[in-house]
Design a protein that fits this description.
By secondary structure, this protein is α+β, with helices and mostly antiparallel strands. Helix content is about 35%, strand content about 25%. Helix 7 runs antiparallel to helix 14. The protein starts with a strand and ends with a strand.
Length: about 450
């Protein structure tokens, strides 16, 4: 039986669209008056100059903020004395927000740290609890996103952030809201953690099926030989090993999303499309762009093309593959991607599954270069050594993988939908609490599974 959360006894019109009616006794204030906003700093160019890194000073990136569970407890990069001199250190307890790339993510520093100007820090006024502001800014993410400007990527302007309006309840209400949300979000996060672990196990099992099939084949009695490639190991004796360039045509795309007068309208398959979809099809909402005639000829996608990501802020997201399963008019391979077209010796489906294997991903991980952003040079892709079975075996391997991964794919999709619903519920609960749509004073309960319904 779901319980209905109580409301405050009296409300007033806030006059602010996203806040709506708020409880009597609450106020609201512009973010710039509630906090002191300080932009991150790193003035050295180029940003990825290795002589500035690998020292004792934590250097937070937007990905560290996105991955944090409220408090940032770990970091992916450090600055040395030279890097520290051109940056700025913020104290532990600073509320931070990403204002470029994955904008609107918030967290609280668990230690002293520096960060670039793609992140801003907030020092709250005396009447605003830092943990309460964390929840408020989490609830305001859509408001912040609505003010973002689009250049080469989405960006938040600090002045616009400062002009946004946020609720300011009495101090006792702020503390009650934080206590309530701490307990309730912990329950939700625990459920989400269970689902994520289940998805991780399923993906590991799925990856093992793919890796074994594309590197050792389907016949357990087949004689084996040393491939001569350390990361590949033994393969069936009758298979060949060829560099990727000899069995595919490889092109790094340079088509971006800018609309330029005189160019022809196209749609782009971009990094996110590939990262989120194994199979590229017509139901995906592609980005509109323009391209020259030569770009259309070079990068038009057709059924059977395989695309991989070639740069990312996270080296683990390098060389993620997808396969085009239908020819879509005017669809081009976008920037940050490489287009691989199978030659006569290799089937597109086998090439796609091979690029999904642990063997290939481990190879590409060793070839990814960078400090703040990682990339794959075209020659690294071209030189990837590829096990090439006879075509009849390639076809059988693809069929086997498709059949064996259906069950895990179905469960992964189910659990991912549940995660979306849990995340939506979590966001709604935070929004209702920080805007006063529910009265959570005195409602902190035991740490049991979440079962509350929103009004």
């Amino acid at each position: 039986m779901r319980k209905t959360l109580p409301r405050y006894s009296k409300y007033k019109d806030s006059g602010v669209e996203w806040l709506g009616d708020m409880p009597q006794g609450w106020n609201f204030r512009r973010v710039g008056r509630m906090t002191r906003i300080l932009r991150g700093k790193f003035t050295h160019r180029p940003r990825n100059d290795p002589k500035m890194y690998d020292g004792p000073y934590p250097f937070i990136q937007t990905g560290d903020v996105a991955r944090a569970a409220r408090y940032i407890q770990e970091y992916s990069q450090t600055l040395n004395q030279g890097g520290f001199a051109v940056s700025k250190q913020f104290p532990a307890g600073t509320l931070v927000m990403t204002i470029a790339a994955n904008i609107g993510d918030v967290a609280i520093l668990g230690f002293e740290a520096c960060f670039p100007d793609s992140i801003v820090g907030f020092i709250p006024s005396r009447d605003s609890e830092i943990e309460f502001l964390y929840y408020v800014f989490s609830a305001m993410k859509e408001e912040f996103l609505s003010t973002a400007t689009l250049g080469t990527q989405l960006n938040l302007n600090i002045d616009r952030v400062a002009s946004e309006v946020a609720p300011v309840p009495p101090a006792n209400d702020q503390r009650a809201i934080v206590s309530f949300l701490d307990v309730e979000t912990r329950k939700i996060d625990r459920l989400m953690g269970v689902r994520r672990r289940q998805i991780e196990v399923l993906r590991e099992q799925r990856a093992a099926v793919i890796h074994h099939a594309v590197t050792q084949g389907l016949d357990p009695t087949a004689p084996m030989k040393d491939s001569g490639i350390e990361w590949l190991g033994k393969i069936p004796k009758h298979w060949e090993v060829q560099p990727l360039w000899s069995v595919t045509r490889i092109r790094n795309s340079n088509v971006d999303k800018k609309s330029i007068e005189g160019e022809q309208p196209v749609i782009l398959c971009n990094y996110v499309d590939v990262y989120k979809n194994e199979f590229i099809h017509g139901q995906i909402e592609f980005m509109e762009a323009t391209a020259t005639g030569s770009e259309k000829l070079a990068f038009a996608l057709r059924e059977g093309d395989v695309i991989i990501t070639k740069d990312s802020e996270d080296w683990r997201d390098i060389a993620v593959p997808a396969i085009v399963v239908e020819t879509i008019p005017h669809l081009l391979c976008g920037y940050h991607l490489a287009l691989l077209r199978a030659g006569s010796a290799i089937l597109a489906g086998y090439l796609f599954r091979l690029l999904q294997s642990k063997a290939c991903s481990s190879y590409f991980a060793t070839k990814a270069l960078g400090v703040t952003r990682f990339g794959l040079a075209q020659h690294a892709v071209r030189r990837c050594m590829t096990p090439v079975p006879p075509k009849s075996e390639q076809e059988a391997i693809v069929t086997h993988i498709d059949r064996e991964t259906v069950k895990s794919d179905t469960l992964i999709s189910k659990y991912e939908r549940e995660l979306v619903l849990l995340e939506e519920y979590r966001s709604s609960l935070i929004s209702h609490a920080v805007t006063g749509k529910i009265d959570v004073r005195g409602l902190v309960e035991s740490d049991e599974e979440p079962e509350r319904a929103l009004l």
